């Protein structure tokens, strides 16, 4: 996984949680970013759960990783 300190503390939205979307969410989180992720498929959204320790889900079905 590629991470970068450039993303730390910034907020990003990832729309679409197929393979590349999930990989993007994981890389951003590992880099210290805040990520809001969404997919129209409930199973794709649920695949990101359970949330990492200290993070929460929020919004209308969209995980809000902080």
Structural commentary:
The chain has 66 residues and is of the alpha+beta class. The chain has helices at residues 19-30, 42-46, and strands at residues 11-15, 34-38, 64-65. Strands 1-2-3 form a three-stranded mixed β-sheet, covered by helices on one side. The model is unreliable at 56-63 (pLDDT under 50).
Taking the sheet with the most strands, its summary is: 3 strands, mixed
Spatial arrangement of strands, main beta sheet: 1-2-3
Measure the end-to-end span: 19 Å
Question: What is the count of helical runs?
Answer: 2
Q: Which word captures the global form?
A: elongated
What letter string, H or E per element, gives the SSE order?
A: EHEHE
Class computed from helices, strands and strand pairing: alpha+beta
Helix content: 25-40%
The counted number of beta strands is 3
Average pLDDT, rounded to a whole number, is: 81
